[in-house]
Amino acid sequence: MEDRTCSMAEILQRKDRACLARKLVTECMQIEAVEDGAMMTRFHNFFLQISFSELHPLAVFCFAKPVSILGEEVRSKLNMLNLKSIYGAHAVNEDGNCYIYRAAFWLEGELNKSRLFEILDRFSEEANKGFLTITAI
Hints:
Layout: H1 8-28, E1 33-35, E2 38-43, E3 46-53, E4 58-66, H2 72-84, E5 88-92, E6 98-106, H3 113-135
Antiparallel strand pairs: 1-2, 2-3, 3-4, 4-6, 5-6
Helix pairs in contact: 2-3
């Protein structure tokens, strides 16, 4: 079996990528709050939570928007969205008052401003498509 542990150099490189990405986000966006390392802001009419994992290195984006829906039809639509989703996962909380789209991006290299906004635009388009789909009942 292959040993998949990272060298100390790789661990430090991943940590540096995550730190630089976090710094870029704070420079490019208006961060409203930070909680347990996750940054909160708004993007294209969504609440947006951005967090980074230094170990993997991943950037995780969670888009949220209030809704008022419940029922089996919503679950069916969410299942269809998730079957077709390329980047992330769509969900509605148990109370049916919050739509969530969560996607992750592997930080394979240093993140720059144009790449950050390309990712955010792509993920927010997917989130908006999901939101419009589940609210069209």
